[in-house]
UniProtKB/TrEMBL annotation:
2-oxoglutarate binds at residues 108, 110, 120, 177, 189, 193, 195. GO terms for molecular function: broad specificity oxidative DNA demethylase activity; cytosine C-5 DNA demethylase activity; ferrous iron binding. It comes from Microbulbifer rhizosphaerae. This is Alkylated DNA repair dioxygenase AlkB. Signal peptide: none annotated. The keyword Oxidoreductase applies. It comes from the Bacteria. Residues 101-198 form the Fe2OG dioxygenase domain. Substrate binds at residues 52-54. InterPro entries: AlkB-like, AlkB-like_sf, ALKBH2, Oxoglu/Fe-dep_dioxygenase_dom.
Length: 199
């Protein structure tokens, strides 16, 4: 029988697109040291955004990393990237070897269960027609849910520490996703979301 080098790898059916989940992409120790590295060495922000006419801090922290000259426009914000650290550049290089092209990385830090991200799609026009987004998860496992824009389709997956999720562009067009808050006591999680931004 054919053995996968990455135990538990599975395709998620999100018609007409797909996502590939590799739960064991990074070794647990590698994921743990990357988490510490990000906490210590990135510049974190918790910007305010307007929701239904009122200003609120986003329910998480984030850091934007990228190539010189990339601009990330998001919810009325315009962010310029901090440079790649050596460890994050190595991770990107591994994805490039697999054939993907990314010039930026949005890093999300969920401090506990009261942090999360509401329903949205990664479909800003700077991401282009069919953006592939690669998400590496570090720390506390959390549930990522998908719901179809015009249908009853629903699916959710657990993103464990060290996992890699690759979502195809068609998924962003036809599905929304969220990282729901939880009333359970949860430890911190970081997600590294690699993107290609045309700016
Ligand atoms: O933290 C996650 O896994 C999801 C993050 C996300 O959806 C995003 O950054 O657009
Ligand atoms: Fe997203």
């Amino acid at each position: 029988m054919l053995q996968s080098a990455y135990a538990g790898t599975q395709w998620l059916d999100l018609p007409p697109g797909h996502a590939l989940l590799i739960p064991t992409w990074l070794a647990p120790s590698e994921a743990a040291s990357l988490l510490d590295h990000c906490l210590q060495d990135l510049q974190w922000e918790q910007p305010m955004v307007r929701v239904f006419g009122k200003q609120h801090p986003i329910p998480r922290r984030h850091a934007f990393v990228g190539d010189n000259g990339v601009v990330y426009r998001w919810s009325g914000l315009e962010q310029r990237p901090q440079p790649w650290t050596e460890s994050l550049a190595v991770l990107r290089a591994q994805l490039v070897r697999a054939g993907f092209q990314f010039n930026s990385l949005l890093v999300n830090h969920y401090r506990n269960g009261t942090d999360g991200m509401g329903w949205h799609a990664d479909n800003e026009k700077e991401l282009g027609e069919n953006p592939v987004v690669a998400t590496v998860s570090l720390g506390q496992e959390r549930r990522l849910s998908f719901k179809q824009r015009d249908g009853a389709g629903r699916l959710s997956v657990i993103l464990s520490s060290g996992s890699l999720l690759l979502t195809s562009g068609a998924v962003q067009k036809h599905w929304l996703h969220q990282l729901a808050k939880s009333t359970r006591p949860l430890k911190e999680r970081i997600s590294l979301t690699f993107r290609y931004i045309n700016s």
